[in-house]
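Pasting as-is:
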Amino acid sequence: MQMMSGSSSGSGEMMDLYTNLIHPNGSIKLPLVGEVYVQGLTLREAKAAIEESIKPVLKLNSVDVRMMGQYFSIIGAGKSGRFPITREKVNIFQAIAMAGDFGFYADRSRIKILRENVDGSTQIKVFDIRSVDIIHSEYYYLEPDDVIFLQPMKEQFFGVSTFWTAVSTIITTFSFGVIIKKSFFTTTP
């Protein structure tokens, strides 16, 4: 996991941003300060720990701490992509909003989340996004490398999604009926 920290002098100008890799022992190494232990801390707690360790060395107003290098993916129903997880928690609804919502033909009753476990096995959870039960599920908040799979509706032959597509479908059907009637059922005098 990477953590990005930056500082500003309070003058409104953007200072350099530094990306620090969290070492296997759970710490990051900062110049002039040394190692700061951040494993298991929330972003706010990590920010407070970094600011506290920097105080004796530098006079800073604040430090900005963000997670980097973590992504989730969405596949299917015309919405495919890889999206960064930039906050501490991203829920399933925020992930769908980041992808630009579903297409008209995505089956909202059979959303799948593929999640890799620590032991290397993969879990697949199928749920209905319209149900309240998802909020209480362990899959409500995404984890890094989760894959959201949107399935198309099976029973969708053609769709009427707006008023104008309904009008167009009615006019086309009526016109086709008139052509068939005139072609096969017209008697010649």
